[in-house]
UniProtKB/TrEMBL annotation:
The organism of origin for this protein: Metabacillus endolithicus
GO biological process terms, semicolon-separated: proteolysis
Keywords on record: Hydrolase, Membrane, Protease, Serine protease, Transmembrane, Transmembrane helix
Short name of any one Pfam family annotated for the protein: Trypsin_2
GO-annotated molecular function: peptidase activity
SMART domains: PDZ
PROSITE patterns membership: PDZ
Annotated protein name in UniProt: S1C family serine protease
Top EC class of this enzyme: hydrolase
Length: 409
C-alpha cells in the first residue's frame, strides 16, 4: 500500500468504536465519520440532424458568405501556462522529506543506535530570507523525528531544521540553507477558487522512487470539513476537496492552480474500499497565518482551558443517568475526564464528570466542537461562560482563558 506515516495511516483508515473506556481516563475521543454523496447527472440524447439538413445548412452559410464583407483574422495565442510549463517552473521548489528516528538494537553484549528512515513525505520551498530557505509541509510528516532530511529536485540530500509545527492544523515549517534554494513557490488566494477549477498536485507518492510525480484533477469542493485525530486531540479541519490523485508520500506537497500558484497543502485522503478520488488539501489562506506565526514564535499560541475530554458516545446511557444523574433529555455535550491543576478550568471549579453543553451560549456537542470554538472564537485573556451539568444540576461558570499552549483542550 505504501507509506504515509503512522499518523497518516491512522487518518486514512475508517475508525470503529472501541469498547467502553473508564470515565476517569484522560482524553478519550472518537472520530466522527462522514459520507459524501456524489451527484449523478443524466444527459438527454438529442436528435441528430439529417444529411439533407446538414447540406442545406452548409449551402446557406456559403451563400451568405458570398455577400459578406472581408474580415481580417488573427491567430489566437495558446495558453502559456500549460501544465508542463508550470511543472518545469515549480519543480526546483518541490522537495522530498524524510523523517529520521533513532533505532536502538541490542544483543547479549552490546547495544547500538542508528538513525533510520521512519517515514517520507513531500514539501515545497515558500520563502527565502537571508541565509535561510523555508519549507512548508504537514506536521504528521515530521512528527516524532529526531532529525529531518530534505531531498532536493536534483537528488541532493541536505539536513533541515524544524522551525515550528502545529498538530491541530497539520502544518510544519522547516529551514534549510539558502544556497540550496533556486525557486520559491508562490502562495495563491484559495478564497478565489471555484468548484470545477483545474488543479495539479506534485509530490513523492510511495517515496523517492516516484519523486515529483504530477497528477491532474479539479477542485471537487471548497467548503469541506473533515474530523481528524491529532496528537493534540480531535479537530475539525477545513479543507479543499480534489480528485487529483493523492497517495501515500504526497502529504505536504503543493496543490497548484493553473496560474502556477500553490493554493493548498495536500494532507489526507479517504481510502475506504470502493472510494476513489477523495483527496483533501489545507487551503493556502489557512496556511499563511499559521506559517507566519510559526516563523515568528516557533509555535501557535492558543487559549488554554485545561481539561481532558471524553465523548458522551463513549459512555453507556445507563452510566450517564444512574452514576452521573444526567437528565435523559440531555443527549449532546462533552464530558470532563480530568482537570489540570492550576489551569483556568481548575480555578473556575470545573470537576471530573461535568458535562459541558455550551460555551457563550454556543452549543457544544463534542470535543472537536469545543476546540473549534475555543481556538476560533475566543482570545487569550477572554472570559467565557460555560454551561454544564454536574450531578444532574445545570449550572453556569465563568472561566478566564490563559496564555498557555493547548495540550488537552
Amino acid at each position: 500500500m505504501g507509506y504515509y506515516d503512522q499518523t497518516e495511516i491512522t487518518r486514512e483508515q475508517k475508525k470503529t468504536r472501541k469498547s467502553i473506556k473508564p470515565i476517569v481516563s484522560s482524553l478519550l475521543s472518537g472520530i466522527v465519520g462522514g459520507a459524501l454523496v456524489l451527484g449523478v447527472t443524466t444527459y438527454k440524447q438529442e436528435q441528430q440532424p439529417t444529411v439533407e439538413q446538414n447540406t442545406a445548412a452548409v449551402e446557406a452559410v456559403t451563400q451568405n458568405n458570398d455577400s459578406a464583407p472581408n474580415v481580417s483574422t488573427q491567430e489566437l495565442s495558446t495558453n502559456s501556462s500549460s501544465i508542463a510549463d508550470i511543472v518545469d517552473s515549480l519543480t526546483p521548489a518541490i522537495v522530498g522529506i524524510t523523517n529520521m528516528q533513532t533505532q536502538t538494537s541490542r544483543d547479549f553484549f552490546n547495544s547500538s543506535s542508528e538513525s533510520v528512515e521512519a517515514g517520507t513525505g513531500s514539501g515545497f520551498i515558500f520563502k527565502k530570507e537571508g541565509d535561510a530557505g523555508y519549507i512548508l509541509t504537514n506536521n504528521h510528516v515530521i512528527e516524532g523525528a529526531q532529525s529531518i532530511e530534505v531531498t532536493l529536485y536534483n537528488g541532493e540530500k541536505v539536513p533541515a531544521e524544524l522551525v515550528g509545527t502545529d498538530a491541530l492544523t497539520d502544518i510544519a515549517v522547516l529551514k534549510i540553507d539558502a544556497e540550496h534554494v533556486e525557486v520559491v513557490a508562490e502562495l495563491g488566494d484559495s478564497s478565489q477558487l471555484r468548484t470545477g477549477e483545474d488543479v495539479i498536485a506534485i509530490g513523492n507518492p510511495l517515496g523517492e522512487e516516484f519523486s515529483r510525480t504530477v497528477t491532474q484533477g479539479i477542485i471537487s469542493g471548497i467548503d469541506r470539513t473533515i474530523d481528524v485525530t491529532t496528537s493534540e486531540g480531535n479537530w475539525a479541519l477545513d479543507v479543499l476537496q480534489t480528485d487529483a490523485a493523492i497517495n501515500p508520500g504526497n502529504s505536504g506537497g503543493p496543490l497548484i492552480n493553473m496560474s502556477g500558484q500553490v493554493i493548498g497543502i495536500n494532507s489526507l485522503k479517504i481510502s475506504d474500499s470502493g472510494v476513489e478520488g477523495l483527496g483533501f488539501a489545507i487551503p493556502s489562506n489557512d496556511v499563511v497565518p499559521i506559517a507566519e506565526e510559526l516563523l515568528s514564535n516557533g509555535k501557535i499560541q492558543r487559549p488554554f482551558l485545561g481539561v481532558g475530554l471524553v465523548e458522551m458516545s463513549e459512555v453507556p446511557q445507563y452510566y450517564l443517568q444512574q452514576n452521573m444523574s444526567l437528565p435523559e433529555e440531555v443527549t449532546e455535550g462533552v464530558i470532563v475526564g480530568n482537570v489540570s491543576p492550576a489551569s483556568p478550568a481548575d480555578e473556575a471549579g470545573l470537576k471530573q464528570q461535568d458535562v459541558i453543553i455550551s460555551m457563550n451560549d454556543q452549543k457544544i456537542t463534542s470535543s472537536s466542537d469545543l476546540r473549534k470554538f475555543l481556538y476560533s472564537e475566543t482570545e487569550i485573556g477572554e472570559e467565557v461562560k460555560v454551561t454544564l451539568y454536574r450531578a444532574g444540576e445545570k449550572m453556569t461558570v465563568t472561566i478566564k482563558l490563559t496564555n498557555k499552549d493547548a495540550t488537552n483542550a
